[in-house]
């Protein structure tokens, strides 16, 4: 663990099987040599609890007496006092930004640092595939973190770098990772990575979780304030892409993320005809659902705060109330109502009673490879 001023970077490399053998051996040695000594020692408990206490959350400093523990070893959190509101910044609500990263783009990092939400209230979490692409992305991000630290510009509350312990696609080229035939495998892997990330990084003090893809290189500096102001359980921005249009000889924009959608009769019909282990993948001609896609509802002259009820979401820029994850909404790596990963997450959130929305006129921009 490396400490930085008001923030720290937590490196987590998960190899549980490699640790199991030595830990088991240490436990056996411990019980063999110390069981006798323990049985003859005093039976007085290490910890004592003052019976006069009214509970863990009162102000009586003598109510709980814990001996033989380091100072401040135990922390108390009352989640009933945790606020999740449209006035997030004013109430100093903590935001966790989570990003699966198979490649590092300097534009992503620069955009992240331009966010005007108080950085001391923001924690960052990244997960990297355990392959050459992941190694390179991790190396590049670490370099930028060191530069930021040297310039006293690393002021996020906490940064967690996590190495993925599940498989990932060999090629991360856009044409390869978006091929129709690999979608079930790819998105199952992505779901596992997202679950590892949120389960590892979510703190009791977290109010909001912002899923921000590593390819998102341009957003409003007020992205977090803009999204939290809607006070929605799940809210997705509309992901577009800038490109040079030869037809008009100028830069233009085009829709990119087609995973923000409203269910259709054709989609339901297709689902009924699928085997239990098959999924519907949106945005491909091979499986035309004719679902209304939020990407096609963008109005350049429309109100950016216009909301649209959704049944599926992508992962480009999605704000989630932390309680949605705490209540059990995760990213299914298996067919869930014939949906998987982010679209499966939206379905799971709705099954838990939460509403899912999108902002068709609020754009964020994806990197153009």
Reported CATH architecture: Alpha-Beta Complex
Return residue spans where pLDDT drops below 50 for at least 5 consecutive residues: 1-5, 36-66
Quick one: overall form? globular
**CATH topology category name:** Spore Coat Polysaccharide Biosynthesis Protein SpsA, Chain A
Q: Count of helices?
A: 9
Distance between the termini: 34 Å
How many β-strands, per DSSP?
A: 14
Largest sheet: 12 strands, mixed
SSE string, helices as H and strands as E: EEHEEEHEHEHHEEHEEHEEHHE
Kindly name the structural category: alpha/beta
CATH class: Alpha Beta
Rounded Rg: 24 Å
| Count of domain modules | 1
SSE blueprint and pairings:
Elements: E1 2-4, E2 7-13, H1 16-40, E3 47-49, E4 64-66, E5 94-100, H2 106-113, E6 122-128, H3 132-150, E7 158-163, H4 174-177, H5 183-201, E8 206-212, E9 216-218, H6 223-228, E10 234-245, E11 250-255, H7 265-272, E12 308-309, E13 317-321, H8 322-326, H9 341-351, E14 356-366
Parallel strand pairs: 2-7, 5-6, 5-8, 6-7, 10-14
Antiparallel strand pairs: 1-2, 3-4, 8-13, 9-14, 10-11, 10-13, 12-14
Explain what the structure shows.
This protein is an alpha/beta fold. It has a single domain, classed as Spore Coat Polysaccharide Biosynthesis Protein SpsA, Chain A (Alpha-Beta Complex). 28% of the residues lie in helices and 22% in strands. It is built from nine helices and 14 strands. The strands form two sheets. Strands 1, 2, 5, 6, 7, 8, 9, 10, 11, 12, 13 and 14 form a twelve-stranded mixed beta sheet that branches. It has a two-stranded antiparallel sheet with strand order 3-4. The N terminus is likely disordered.
């Amino acid at each position: 663990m490396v400490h930085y001023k008001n923030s720290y970077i937590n490196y987590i490399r998960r190899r549980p099987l490699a640790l199991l053998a030595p830990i088991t051996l240490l436990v056996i040695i411990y019980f063999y040599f110390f069981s006798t000594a323990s049985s003859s020692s005093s039976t007085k408990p290490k910890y004592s609890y003052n019976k006069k206490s009214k509970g863990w959350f009162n102000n009586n400093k003598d109510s709980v007496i814990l001996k033989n523990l380091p100072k401040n070893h135990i922390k108390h959190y009352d989640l009933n006092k945790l606020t999740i509101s449209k006035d997030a910044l004013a109430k100093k609500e903590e935001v966790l930004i989570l990003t699966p990263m198979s490649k590092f783009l300097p534009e992503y990092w620069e955009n992240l640092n331009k966010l005007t939400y108080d950085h001391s209230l923001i924690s960052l979490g990244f997960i990297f595939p355990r392959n050459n692409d992941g190694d390179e992305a991790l190396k590049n991000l670490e370099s930028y973190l060191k530069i930021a630290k040297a310039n006293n510009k690393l002021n996020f509350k906490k940064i967690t770098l996590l190495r993925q312990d599940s498989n990932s696609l060999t090629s991360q080229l856009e044409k390869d990772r978006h091929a129709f035939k690999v979608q079930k495998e790819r998105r199952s892997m992505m779901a596992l990575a997202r679950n590892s990330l949120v389960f590892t990084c979510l703190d009791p003090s977290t109010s909001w979780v912002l899923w921000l893809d590593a390819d998102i290189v341009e957003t409003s500096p007020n992205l977090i304030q803009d999204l939290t102001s809607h006070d929605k359980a799940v809210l997705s921005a509309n992901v577009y892409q800038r490109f040079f249009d030869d037809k008009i000889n100028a830069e233009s924009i085009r829709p990119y993320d087609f995973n923000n959608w409203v269910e259709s009769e054709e989609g339901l019909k297709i689902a009924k005809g699928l085997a239990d282990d098959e999924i519907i993948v949106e945005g491909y001609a091979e499986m035309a659902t004719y679902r209304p896609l939020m990407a096609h509802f963008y109005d350049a002259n429309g109100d950016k705060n216009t909301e649209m009820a959704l049944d599926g979401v992508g992962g480009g820029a999605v704000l989630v109330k932390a309680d949605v994850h705490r209540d059990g909404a995760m990213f299914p790596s298996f067919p869930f109502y014939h949906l998987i990963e982010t679209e499966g997450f939206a379905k799971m959130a709705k099954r838990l009673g939460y509403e899912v929305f999108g902002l068709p006129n609020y754009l964020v921009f994806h990197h153009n490879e």
